[in-house]
Design goal:
heterodimer; A: 105 residues; mainly beta; Immunoglobulin-like; 4-stranded antiparallel β-sheet; 3-stranded antiparallel β-sheet; B: Immunoglobulin-like; 6-stranded mixed β-sheet
Chain lengths: 105, 154
């Protein structure tokens, strides 16, 4: 099981600024270790829900950096709203984590 | 009603055939919706855009790409994309000189602002091309990023 994601969602006005850090090697299949190619292993798809509605989703390639970081913004969010993020990699492994939107400064 | 062994076998066979047909018919659709393998495996940005149906994208100044002019480390290049085109539903990123240029598509719905921050690997100095989809049309722009140390292989 992969390590948990770190998700932070902070309100700026009525826009939630969501940042997520995923723990994943994101192997490109081009890197070699001891003369052997390290097999392709990367996150393929991501979905993010705000209170159960999908607001952000992505299909990505191995060109995303190791331990991927993404940020996105959702209008109309309130403090206490629930953000749930799921990723799935090319080996079928998935991970889901959640957080609540925090009021900004 | 008398049911012979033969008729039972026939019925079972038909059911089995239906199940096989059903699974093969359903699978390609799901796979397409899930992850566009053809586009991700394309070796040029033009082919990838073709596979995604974006080859007719027109140039636009309303897409803002914020990325370093010179990236010291190609393994982690921060890229911010904002689309100021009204009704933008998705943003796609292509790193033109990477072995597989298509880096991803980000979809926005239900109040999400057409903005995304990502960190990508750049194999060498390359234009970073962004295609935004709005109202069934595609708009594009690109920004050149110089890389001093590549992010692929090693």
């Amino acid at each position: 099981m992969a390590d948990p994601m770190k998700i932070r969602a902070t309100l700026q006005g009525d826009v939630a600024d969501v940042r997520v850090l995923m723990a994943h090697p994101m192997e490109t299949g081009q890197r070699k270790q001891a003369g052997k190619a390290v097999p392709l292993h990367f996150i393929q798809s991501i979905t993010a829900q705000l209170n159960g509605k999908t607001v952000f989703s992505a299909d990505i390639s191995q060109a995303i950096s190791r331990n991927p970081v993404f940020a996105f913004k959702v209008k109309g969010a309130k403090a206490g709203d629930k953000i749930v993020i799921t990723w799935k990699d090319n080996n079928g492994e998935t991970r889901t984590d959640e957080t609540t939107v925090r009021a900004g400064l | 009603m008398q049911q012979t062994r033969r008729s039972v076998m026939k019925a079972g066979g038909a059911l089995g055939l239906l199940a096989v047909l059903g699974s093969t018919l359903l699978k390609p659709g799901r796979a397409l919706a899930a992850w566009n393998k053809g586009a991700f495996e394309a070796k040029s940005a033009i082919d990838a855009m073709k596979a995604l149906g974006m080859s007719n994208a027109e140039d636009s100044k309303d897409i803002v790409i914020r990325a370093p002019d010179i990236a010291e480390n190609g393994a982690v290049v921060p890229i911010d994309v904002t689309s100021n085109i009204p009704g933008t539903t998705s943003i796609s990123v292509f790193i033109e000189k990477n072995p597989f240029p298509y880096t991803g598509t980000f979809d926005f719905s239900q109040g999400a602002v057409p903005f995304v921050h990502l960190r990508a690997k750049l194999g060498e100095s390359t234009p970073v091309r962004v295609v935004a989809a709005a109202g069934g049309k595609y708009y594009t722009t690109a920004k050149e990023v110089k890389v001093t140390i590549g992010g692929c292989g090693g």
